Every structure is written in structure tokens, then in C-alpha cells.
């Protein structure tokens, strides 16, 4: 998951960047509203963590400009403690969720994952990677025009990798997002399903789309292998 943190309190921004990176997120940081708006406009983030009180352009205006430009990126706004008016205005300007300062990091991570799932389900997607086609609406997959039968779990795994095509995805993230199993999930489960995917979408076609990234996890080739 790609996250942009827009926070002018540098110590907090750095702590969030380190913490979220340790959780498997890809994190960028901006320290003012204008640079945050530019980054969110120019790059494909899944979620923006957006503080209200920012120099240059406050969080409300950043949020409203993103929505006016047609962006559907998930926006979690950081509001003042007990600031019910802040929370109401955050939602009115287009934020998807809010969290009051000070907040629990564990809760922030859970909110981000839940928000990413909601945002990802807003519009069915059809992903084309070379001759590999993944239709999230129909829950179907085809390679070179040949339909491929996948189990529900295999498809969920493939769809998750397709959302991050070209990026390394850790086993832990796969367990969290595909199995929703938390820290007690068995990484061997991921390996078994990865092997099954390769046997179905790669081996019969002489392709190598599902790649192992040593020490990092797995990657679905953006060109379909």
C-alpha cells in the first residue's frame, strides 16, 4: 500500500514514516499543504494521511482540491483532540475517515488497512498485464485469451498482487490482506498458494509473472512475465 503522510510536525511525520514502513507500507512525506497536494496529484497513492493544520494550504483545502480534481484516493484526516467540528468539516470536504490526535499507532494502521479495502472496492477493476487479464468484477482471470480457473483464495492473492504490480509484497502483508490472519498467520500458506498460482497462470504458458523477491516477498511482473 502506498501512503502519503502530509504532516508539518516533523518528528511525528518521521515517526509515522518509520512505523508505517516497518508495517510494510511504502511511505512518502510532505510537510506543507502545497507540496502535499502536488505529490497526491502527481503520484498514485492508495491513502493520504492528512493533517488539518498545515502551512501554505490547510488540510481542508488540500482535500477539497483533490476531490474537485476527481481524485478518489483514500483520505484519512488527522483532527484536533475532541474537535467534533474539525471532524464534521473533514467529512464535508471529502475525507473518508478521521483520527483525533493524540492517536494510537495500532489504530492508525488498522484504519489505513480498512480504508484501503473500502477504496479498492469502490469500482471494479480490470487489470491488463501483458497477455494476463484479471477482472476483479467478474472474479475471473485469463492468459492469452484462455480462461484460467482459480479458487477464491488464489484469485484474491492474484488480485492483491495485481494491485501492486511491479512492487515487492511481503508475506506478512499478504497474510494480513488476503487471509486477514494477523501476526499468527502461517507464511507457508502463502508459499503453497503462490506455487499453485504459478502452476496455473505461468507454467502452461511459458511465463514467469509471479516472481520471488529474496528477503522481501513476491512480485507480479507489470508486463505479465
How would you describe this structure to a colleague?
The protein has 225 residues and is α/β, with parallel strands linked by helices. It is 42% helix and 21% strand. The protein contains 8 helices and 11 strands. It has helices spanning 10-22, 33-42, 59-68, 84-92, 105-120, 152-163, 171-179, 187-202; strands at 2-6, 26-30, 47-51, 74-79, 97-100, 126-129, 132-135, 140-143, 146-148, 210-213, 217-220. The strands form 3 sheets. It has a 5-stranded parallel β-sheet with strand order 2-1-3-4-5, sandwiched between helices. It has a 4-stranded antiparallel β-sheet with strand order 6-7-8-9, covered by helices on one side. Helix 2 (33-42) runs parallel beside helix 3 (59-68), helix 6 packs across helix 8 (187-202) and helix 7 crosses helix 8. The radius of gyration is 19 Å and the shape is elongated.
